[in-house]
Structure formats: C-alpha cells, structure tokens
Write a structure and sequence with these properties.
six-stranded parallel sheet; 57% helix; alpha/beta; Rossmann fold; 10 strands; Beta Polymerase, domain 2; elongated; 15 helices
Length: 424
C-alpha cells in the first residue's frame, strides 16, 4: 500500500504560485473527477487553503498509485501551467513522513501562525468533501480521522491554542474581558471599518456582543460592514454622542492624528455620569489621546500594551511546542503500527483459511475411517486440531506482529507467502 502527499505551502512556495495552484470550492468536483479518471483505483483528498495546496493520494497497490511526477502533471494540466515550471516548487512525502506532515498541518504546527484554529476545520472540510465526492477509502479514512484525533488531542492536552497572538484577539480576550464579564448587555462602538475592525468584530461576536454600532468617515464602508455582521451603522458627525453611550470602544482608523483629543473627551465626560469606559485603541498612531486613560472610570489600552501581551502569548505557544510534538509523534507511530498490522491482515487471513481447509480435509478423512465414533469424541478431536493449529501458528504470527511494530513487515510477509504458497 502507498500513501503519498504532493503539494506546496507558505514555507516552500511564494504566494503567487500558491494562488495559481489553489482550487476554488466549485473546482473541487472537477479536480477529483479528473484525478480519479487518471488513477481509478486511487483514493484522493485535496486540501486547498490560502497558505497551502496539498494533494493526498492512497492506494492498496503501489503499482496503481500515481507517482510524484503524475500528481505534478495533474496539477499542471488542471491549472494550465507548465509542469517544468512548478515541479521544483512542490514537495513530495510518502508513508510515515506524509502521515506526520498531515498531523502537523491539522494541529496547526505547520501553520503560518502556530496555534491558529481555522486549519483544523479546513482539513476536516477537505476530507468530508472528498468523501462526499466518493474519492476516499479505507486508507484516507484512516489517516484523516487519525489526523483529526491527533489535532484534538493537541488542543485538549496543551495550551498551544489557548494563547491569542493577533492584536484583535488579544484586545478582546486579554483586555476587554478583564473589565467586563459579559458583552451581550454592553453598548459597543467600533470606530473604523477596515480589516482590523472586522477581525475585532469577529472576536467580539464570539464573546457574545450583539449591540454593536459601527462609525466610519465613509458611511458606505461602515454600512457594508454593519450589514455583513448585522450591526448598526451610524454617521461620523454623531461620534461624540456615540462615545457618551458606549461601554466599550474599539478604534481602528488610519487617520494619522488623534480622532478624540483630551479636550474633546473632557467636553462630554460629564454626560457619561462616571460610567466605566473601556477603550481599545488599535490604531497607529493612536486615535485617542493617551491622557484620556487618566480620566475617572476610563480604561485605555493602545497598540503597545497589546503587543506586549501578543509577544508573551507567542512565547507561551512556543513553550508548548515540545509537548505538542510529543503527542503528534505518539499518534504518528500508533497510526503506522495500525497501518502495518492492517498490511499483514490479508496474509494472516489466508494462512488461517488454508489451515482451516486442511483441518476439515483431515477430519473428514479420519471420521470416514471411524464412522461410528461418538459425537462428543468427534468434537473433542476437532477442538484438539484447533488447538494444535493455533499453537503451530502462534510463533510465526507473533513474529509478524512484532515486525509490524518496527515498520512495514515486507520481508517477513514475502517469506510467509513463499513458505505457505499464499497468493495475493
């Protein structure tokens, strides 16, 4: 049997090539159909994300499995590229190396941001889509289910996923939660409508926030973002009134100068009636005058405060790396042992069936010579034959199992087939 991976990632290929090789969701059925058309007895899963494109193939018969060059040719043909142009950019792994790589990918240890959570869902989705399209089988079922199990174990048994390392994630999980225990009853004001604002909004929604107002100098941009996330857009001219009503402010503009000065805030401070106000200023330079943080009831954090925590969390993830690696190595070795055991199963089954046929023949010959023997005696004789066969087979089968623990038992399997004249 053969399990193989051919692909590229952010670690091996530039983004331009990854974009050329990427599979859109609507392209996957055609890609799988094309691959199976070329190799009808091959299982296949295609994993395509913004940071990687990987084609996993598996076959019980190595002779029917596509080669490294075959998969490169498939990718080149499907995307209308020259195979010579992409061959050197694609890596190939097989057997245990391919298994280990998939486990690292699913657990996010091979991600651009170690510990990010999206990749596990992407791996699961790729596997489920391949299953829906009918391109998976026993080998791919086994390795992908094992990869999902390994990833969940890393998530549960280490803290590698628990420490946020992006500015928006840290802003919500490490700072806002220190001030507010819940967000569903808080008025939240989001100033700005760019990528940073949307990412922060994503984490706020996950934390339970549902009363969010978005304000931006461009009403169209704030309206577009508000519609996507079911929030309320408002006019820039109402900024002061919105600050008065807010419990939590997240500011992400790129104005180049303070959006709210100390004097601006002093004018409206009394209208807030000393209600606590958390301000997460994610802009560079700052949107809020740092002096506002000294006002009564105001908790102001800027990008520098957040970056300190980001660095600390990043280091904490690195500290968890050895524990995660140990788990993945254990899971890889266990899967390989199971896979090697599976490789021996047909031979063991054939050997036992052959012995069973010989037993039946000999018992029939024996009972024909003693036709009037006692039925109980016959049963005892039959059980004796069974015990004898089991004792004879135990040492060689035990040797086969032990060799499977050390690796693929090719030499011993071939010896079994020759010695007992077993056919594939």
């Amino acid at each position: 049997m053969k399990l193989q991976l051919v692909g590229c990632s952010h670690q091996t290929a530039p983004v331009e090539l990854r974009q050329q090789l990427a599979f859109a969701t609507e392209d996957l059925p055609g890609a799988i159909e094309s691959l199976q058309g070329r190799f009808p007895n091959t299982e296949a899963v295609v994993l395509s994300t913004c940071n990687r494109v990987e084609v996993y193939t598996a076959s019980e018969d190595q002779n029917e499995s596509p080669s490294h060059e075959d998969v490169v040719q498939f990718l080149a043909d499907f995307h209308h590229l020259s195979p010579d142009k992409i061959f050197g950019e694609l890596f190939q792994q097989s057997g245990e190396d391919a298994v280990r790589h998939l486990f690292y990918v699913a657990s996010s240890l091979d991600s651009m941001v170690v510990g990010e959570s999206q990749i596990l869902g992407q791996v699961k989705q790729a596997y489920e889509e391949a299953t829906r399209l009918g391109s998976t089988g026993p080998l791919t079922h086994g390795v992908f289910q094992a990869a999902l199990k390994a990833a969940r174990r890393v998530a549960n048994d280490t803290a590698i996923h628990q420490k946020r390392i992006s500015i928006p994630a840290v802003a919500v999980s490490d700072f806002a939660t220190q001030i507010f225990q819940r967000f569903d009853d808080k008025n939240i004001l989001l100033i700005g409508a760019g990528e940073m604002a949307e990412e922060t909004l994503q984490y706020l929604r996950a934390a339970g926030a549902n009363k969010v107002t978005i304000v931006n100098r461009s009403l169209q941009r704030s309206t577009t973002l508000a519609k996507k996330w079911h929030c309320h857009p408002d006019h820039w001219e109402r900024l002061e009134a919105l600050i008065v009503a807010a419990d939590l402010i997240v500011s992400t503009t790129a104005s180049g100068q303070p959006v709210v000065t100390l004097d601006d805030f002093k004018k409206i401070e009394s209208k807030r009636n000393q209600r606590p106000l958390a301000i997460l200023d994610l802009a560079v330079p700052c949107d809020f005058d740092p002096a506002i943080g000294k006002c009564l009831g105001v908790y102001l954090y800027n990008i520098d405060d957040l970056q300190i925590v980001c660095h600390r969390n990043r280091q904490a993830r690195q500290d968890e790396w050895p524990a995660a690696e140990k788990i993945l190595e254990e899971e890889t070795q266990q899967f390989m042992v199971d896979l090697h055991h599976r490789a021996t199963a047909p031979t063991i089954r054939q050997l036992k069936q052959s012995c069973e046929l010989l037993k039946i023949e000999e018992l029939e010959r024996l009972f024909n010579k003693i036709p009037h023997s006692d039925p109980n005696a016959r049963q005892e004789i039959s059980r004796a034959f069974d015990r004898f066969i089991n004792k004879i087979l135990h040492p060689p089968l035990d040797s086969l199992r032990k060799e499977a623990h050390q690796g693929a038992p090719h030499s011993l399997l071939e010896a079994f087939k020759r010695l007992f004249k077993l056919k594939d």
